[in-house]
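Task: fold both queries, return tokens.
Query 1:
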Amino acid sequence: MSVEAREKRQPWILLSPALTAVGLLLFVPLVFIVVYSFWLRTATGADQAGFYLDNWNEALTDPFYRDILLGTLRIAAITTIACAFMGYPAAYFIARSRGNKALLLLLLMLPFWISYIIRTMSWINILGVSGAVNWALLNLGIVSEPVQMLYNEPTVILGLVHFLLPFMVLNVYVALEGIDVSLEDAACSLGSTRWQAFREVTLPLSLPGLAAGGLLCFVLSAGTYITPLVLGGPTDAMFANLVFEAIITQLNWPLGSALSLMLLAVLGALVLIYNHYLGMGQLMKGLG
């Protein structure tokens, strides 16, 4: 084998362990899900192998699934907007602080040291009938009986914001760190106020980080399962809960596979749109 041929093969040899892992852990299971989505669940409860469109026809035409999907996207959008409004000031404060950035970033990362499920269930002790908020309201005489604050859509959104806010802050912080602070000073020296300098210089330059955080928050919130299960009521199920019910409760793997691919297609389309206009580089910076 010539030297040139060996040099061409060397990168693939070095990448082979990673490519093998990605293939076995991502693409092979995805192929199984695609195949399962065309199988048929018979009246006896057995899965009949073949190429049937019944599951896709039900998933795409049943208004029940459509409404749940639209509701999931709406909740994800509200969560993303809330994270943006709350996360940007926090990220700006960390990026412009002097001498204590490491401590602030450490405090921001602390929630990741605690299980997501435990953090979600902690809201039951805060907002529950016998939780901290109701205890304070009763002892202050503001209410005469406990207020029901759990198991509704606003609580689900609250739990999602609690979970996803650090992702937004980190992505915006990375974008702000890449902006030269002297640009704001230069704008002010030319007659701009601090607000005008922020609006005309800093905010436009930090929009890629805001978009990256928004994409991450939207995708993670749209695909969540635990938060609506723990904090939501019977009418607050999100699309991932339908997938769980179809596969685990009803043991209907073909329909569950079709539903999961339906959600994957919607979120994948959003990722492709983001990648087309902004690229994945900024998102990788935030995750790194």
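Query 1 returned. Query 2:
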Amino acid sequence: MEITGKPDGVPVFLLHGTPGSRSGPKPRGSVLYRYGIRLISYDRPGYGGSTPRPGRTVADAAQDIKAIAERLGIYRFSVVGRSGGGPHALACAALLPDSVARTAVLVGFANPDAAGLEWFGGMTESNRRDFTAASADRLRLVERLREQAARTRRDPESLLTQLEADMTWPDRHVVQDLAIRRLLAQAYREALRDGPQGWIDDVLALRRDWGFSLSAISGPVRLWHGEQDNFAPVSHTMWLARQIQTAEVDVQPGAAHFGAVQILPEMLEWLSSW
């Protein structure tokens, strides 16, 4: 795990995307200190320095975060999940109601069995292929992500280059920022340093039963999405909003998936205001 910001500040857990790691893009420590935030990020099992846990579910993230919080002597905190980290943040909101003060999800995914949602509608072909293989052809998924992880370890920019081919213009604008590009490449390299297991297990977990009910969420939730997102389409967030009674929704025109990096500071201010 990695802790930045004010040591005695309001604790907020940041859950990285898929693939990702604890070193993903976040505000500088001095900025977090000024906001009065103690930001805690960690590698989900199989990523970076964390031991793999094959067969893990989305719900398992709640117990991981509970264990980290107890180790740090923290008993009340907020959570924010980005992309594939979004469902894991919702797991904490549902399963740790006495501990989680506020929850934010940025460009998140909906449940795999979301009634009335065309789950793959508006999604890039690469994401369609991986998520379909998670349900129908696991060996194909494992081989594809193994090859991609090997390329990424040799050249982290290769994953960004691949993603850029599918990006809408708002995302291309974001990743052209050299600082953000460097942070993303570093996060991908760290995430996949020991192989693709975390990536594989994330994709499998997102496409099987999450292990909790969205109706169990009772605390404040903010859902943010870029309108032009084609990695996790905005329809996913709109579906989540209909299931979570306490959710507020913000759909931003002229933004897409990687806009979550830019909106994070604003979300952190809200998450720490309890």
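Both queries returned. Flag for query 2: The mean pLDDT is 96.
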